[in-house]
Amino acid sequence: MIYLELFWSFFQIGLFSIGGGYAAMPLIQNQVVDIHPWLTMTQFADIMTIAEMTPGPIAINSATFVGIQVAGFPGAIIATMGCIFPSCVIVMTLAYIYYRFRGLNMVQGILAGLRPAVIAMIASAGISLFIMALYGQRTLPADLIPFDVIAMIIFVISIIVLRKWKTNPLWIMAGSGVAGIILYSLI
Amino acid sequence: MNSLQKYKTLFITTFKLSACTFGGGFVIIPLMRKTFVEELGWIEEDEMLDLTAIAQSSPGAIAVNASILVGYHVAGFPGAMITVLGTVLPPIIIISIISMFYKAFRDNVIVNMAMAGMLCGVAAVICDVVINMAKTIFQKKRLLPVIVMLGSFVAVRFFSVNIIIIILVCGLIGAADTWYQGKVKKRGEKDDIP
Q: Do residues B144 and B130 share a domain?
């Protein structure tokens, strides 16, 4: 039963990918290329590229893509449901516990310890994206000088607009996309 | 706001946010913060950070986890179901369409230019939010949170320490701090007795 197999495969991917998109990649490969003959390695590389180019979590994007390839649109829905099912159960349990006990002194202390760390992680993710935008790779290159000037211009203008007018980020995203098309076509 | 309007707002908001989360799960956090904390006022600043910590340390996609938490907080179990739907629908629709001609999409010049531009926009949005959030930590005028923030940053950035480990250690630091503060306070009360 192909639907059940899809559900079970993506259930495992959803359950074991802790720490966001890139942690899920090897798990997805293992399930859809190695264990099941659903995608070839080239198709897998393609879907990873598409998943990065389109909005949405990598796991959900690949669940949809694999589902469609294997069993059409219903397959996509089933695979996606399998993928989010573990999250729904676990996160909702944690949410219940959080709202039940967050008034406790000790729990507040633990949460107060976590908050600065969360900010640090978001900052680090932001820097990774910034490096990606400037140099087109995940890590800093040895030679820092030849960076993408257009990317720098879009970044600086976006940050000025955000700080000065507190613009809705969705407008910044749309604006920087249009700016990308215009500026990169000029050169 | 009645509950039907609340559900509608939840769905439309998460749908819009999810349609714009390029560049990995963390991106949705600043976007959610802007909408739910600043614009709608449904979630408090500190609470948003707590929810982020929970979303980050649970299995699954951060964007999905965060939307479950936000939906649950605003409207309970039905709220969580609605925000999950709002979050997964855009990728399902977009990928379903693209899967028909994904090779052409991948190699399209204009799509790539827009993507390169949006990456800079995302980086700027995150930078803006980090400045705002870091300010709240400095405003506490305590040394420990600042040290935890800088320490975690160095650990993640330069030593690629696993995020789960950082969350555990920082939780322990917070617990130890609370325990110590409580002890100091108790001792102070004892000294007051003549």
A: no
